[in-house]
Design goal:
Layout (H helix, E strand, L loop, with lengths): L2 E4 L4 H14 L1 H7 L6 H15 L7 H4 L10 H6 L4 H6 L4 H8 L2 H13 L4 H7 L3 H9 L5 H12 L1 H25 L1 H9 L3 H8 L14 E7 L6 E6 L2 E7 L2 H8 L8 H8 L2 H13 L4 H8 L3 H14 L2 E6 L2 E6 L1 H12 L10
Parallel strand pairs: 1-2, 2-4
Antiparallel strand pairs: 3-4, 5-6
Helix pairs in contact: 1-12, 9-10, 10-11, 11-12, 16-19, 18-19
C-alpha cells in the first residue's frame, strides 16, 4: 500500500510567492491559471487575494513579473524555489531559508543581471556590478517596459535597500498568510481526511497538464495551497513524489481532463500566435511523442523558454503529456483539435439570418 504523508511545505511557500506573482501578473494569471468552468468565481477569488494582502511596492516587480518576450519563469521561482529540491523535500525550505538566501546581496544582484540581461557578454554583466553607468546603458537599450526599467534602475543603484524591502514585504505577507492558514484549519483538515491517493492517481492519468504515474513511487508527500487554488505540480526524488495541490485541485483536474473539451477561441489564438509555439506543435505532430530536451535541440530553444511554451500550450489544451518513468513525453491532444474543428465549423457556412 502506498504511503501518504502530508506536509505544510512547499504549498505554504507556493502560496506566499503566489501573493506577489498574482499582484504583478493578474491579467496573465486570469488567462492561464483559472478554471474556465468557474471563470467568474475564480477571477473574483484572485481579486480578493490581491485586496486582502494589499499593495506591493512597484520596485519589487523585477522579482515577480513575468516578461513573456524574454523570460519564461518568474525570477523568484527560477532562482529561489526550483533549485532547492532537496531542501523542499526535507521540509527545510521555509520563509527563514528564503530570507537567508536573499540576504546574499551580491548573489541576488548577479542573478538579476543574468535573468534580465543574460544575452549580454559576461564582461559587461561583471562591469555592471561596479559601474552604474554601464548598468544604466544596458537597461536603457533593453526592450523591457518602462515600469520594469524603472525597477531595474532602482535595484542596481542600491541592491541592499531594495532587497531589504523585499525581505520586509515577504515577512509581512508571510505573517498575514499564517493568520489566513489559521482561519482555514477546518478546510485543510478536511482535505487531508478525504484525500484518496488511489482516486487522485487515477484522475491524474487523465490530466493534461501534469500527467503523473504514481505506481512507481512507494511514498507520496502531499502539500496543499490555499491561494493558489488550482495549482497542481509534482516533484520527484528517489522513490518519493511530492504533490503540491491547490484546495480546488479536484475541479481543476476535472476541467483539464481529456473528457472536457470546451474550446475558447481567444485562448486558442493566444496560445498559437507565437511562432515558436507553431514550430513546437508541428515538430510534435511529426514525431508523435517527444521530450522537452528533443524540442530544445530540434528548435534551438532554451530550456526555460521551451518549458514556458509547452506549459501555455498544455494549459490551453493543445498538447497533452504523460510520464514514462520519470521522463515526460509531450504529444498533440487530438481530442482538442476535433472539438476545435466542430467549434469553428459554424463559420464555414453562411448565416441564414443574414440572407
Amino acid at each position: 500500500m502506498k504511503k501518504v504523508r502530508f506536509v505544510k511545505e512547499p504549498g505554504y511557500i507556493y502560496d506566499l510567492l503566489c501573493v506577489f506573482t498574482l499582484y504583478f501578473n493578474d491579467e496573465y494569471w486570469e488567462t492561464v491559471f483559472i478554471n474556465r468552468q468557474k471563470a467568474a468565481e475564480d477571477v473574483s477569488f484572485y481579486k480578493k487575494v490581491i485586496e486582502e494582502f494589499g499593495p506591493i511596492p512597484d520596485d519589487l516587480r523585477i522579482f515577480f513579473a513575468l516578461d513573456t518576450k524574454r523570460n519564461a519563469r518568474v525570477f523568484m521561482t527560477k532562482y529561489y524555489f526550483d533549485p532547492f529540491g532537496e531542501e523542499i523535500f526535507s521540509g527545510n525550505y521555509n520563509i527563514s531559508a528564503l530570507q537567508r538566501e536573499l540576504s546574499d546581496y551580491d548573489r541576488v544582484t548577479r542573478n538579476v543581471l543574468e535573468y534580465y540581461f543574460g544575452y549580454a557578454p559576461a564582461e559587461v554583466l561583471e562591469e555592471c556590478l561596479t559601474s552604474v553607468k554601464t548598468a544604466n546603458n544596458l537597461i536603457r537599450e533593453s526592450e523591457y517596459s518602462d515600469r520594469t526599467k524603472n525597477a531595474l534602475y532602482s535595484f542596481l543603484i542600491d541592491p541592499a535597500e531594495v532587497l531589504q524591502r523585499l525581505i520586509y514585504e515577504l515577512i509581512t505577507k508571510e505573517f498575514m498568510l499564517s493568520k489566513q492558514y489559521e482561519r482555514h484549519v477546518p478546510e485543510l483538515s478536511a482535505l487531508k481526511e478525504n484525500f484518496d491517493i488511489d482516486a487522485v492517481a487515477e484522475k491524474l492519468k487523465k490530466f493534461n497538464v501534469v500527467s503523473v504515474d504514481l505506481d512507481g513511487f512507494s511514498e507520496v508527500v502531499v502539500s496543499f495551497c490555499i491561494n493558489n487554488k488550482n495549482h497542481i505540480s509534482a516533484r520527484y526524488h528517489d522513490d518519493t513524489v511530492l504533490l503540491s495541490l491547490g484546495f480546488d485541485y479536484e475541479d481543476a483536474i476535472k476541467y483539464l481532463s481529456d473528457d472536457i473539451m470546451e474550446i475558447n477561441l481567444h485562448e486558442f489564438g493566444a496560445a498559437i500566435s507565437e511562432k515558436n509555439r507553431v514550430s513546437i506543435l508541428q515538430y510534435i505532430y511529426e514525431n508523435k511523442e517527444v521530450t522537452i530536451k528533443e524540442i530544445e535541440q530540434a528548435l534551438n530553444l532554451a530550456g526555460t523558454n521551451a518549458y514556458y511554451h509547452l506549459t501555455l500550450m498544455i494549459r490551453a489544451g493543445i498538447l497533452k503529456n504523460r510520464n514514462h518513468g520519470k521522463t515526460i513525453l509531450y504529444s498533440v491532444n487530438h481530442k482538442y483539435f476535433a472539438s476545435l474543428s466542430r467549434t469553428i465549423e459554424k463559420y464555414s457556412a453562411e448565416n441564414s439570418s443574414e440572407n
